[in-house]
Give the backbone structure.
Amino acid sequence: MDKPVIGIPIGDPAGIGPEIAIKALMHEELFDICKPLLIGNTKVLDKIIKTLGLYCGINEVDYPDQGKYQKGTANVINIDVQGIEKVEYGKIQQLAGKAAYEFIVKSIELANEGLIDSVATTPINKEAIKAARINFIGHTEIFGALTGTEDPLTMFQVHNLRIFFLSRHVSIRKACDMVTRERLLDYIKRCSKALEMLGVRSGSLAVAGLNPHNGEHGLFGKDETEEITPAVEVAVEQGIDVTGPVPADSVFAQALKGKYSAVLSLYHDQGHIAAKTLDFEKTISLTIGMPFLRTSVDHGTAFDIAGTGSASETSMVEAVKLAAEYSFNYRQKAKLR
């Protein structure tokens, strides 16, 4: 089986994206499992290579199969952005937001055409994207819109712990209102399907509780008895391997030990805190439900250290590894949908 091509848009050129993308290419184990292809601007990459004194050659290509995939070589599909050499490290800039968006768009085009197998993204800055008058709040929304995917699923993976999210960027008050049996049943079905697409076949899906100790049978919260349990019961009747609600203070630890294949977290921070406390740098975000898989580092542009050489590439390396691990199974399942 040929190695999958993993497209890596280099993110906001004012942030650490170009640096961690280049540094990841210094890890030989990536080339053992995939063909990492940078999608960005050669001037931006050449600047960070020279600034940091890195030993990495740039090989500009028009198509992925033209690349020479070996440690220390950056195969790049170059996106020409007029004036990009004027972008300064560590600042919110309209031009940087425009460039980051164009890199993402190109990666999606290549994936939609089947020229790359998966995409592993570096950080973008929401304020820079807004300054460029691009009407998306973040990566997930861009990928959803440009692949025609409504409400794609987000899953975190850190070590062998997998976490789905019932809601993402909404207030905690609104997130609680979104814990309904109808939404839960829909997400349970989608999460089960997502695990199948990733090739995860063992272990049940656990739904986290919302209130402390699952509300103690309604003593302090009836969400478990009125919304969560009924949704789980219907899903089980439909043949889905799911259990819950499981108290949130124990479900993540149990899943880490292998009791569950994944956890459905009921709001953003419930799952984020569990994952990032376990291992911040190796927490990777996956976007599932599109025609191809997208993985991402789960940190920001880090403007405060951009251009200094102190950014860690650990998360980038892990994002590429996960994209490579799941790529073929995901693509095969996506074609059958």
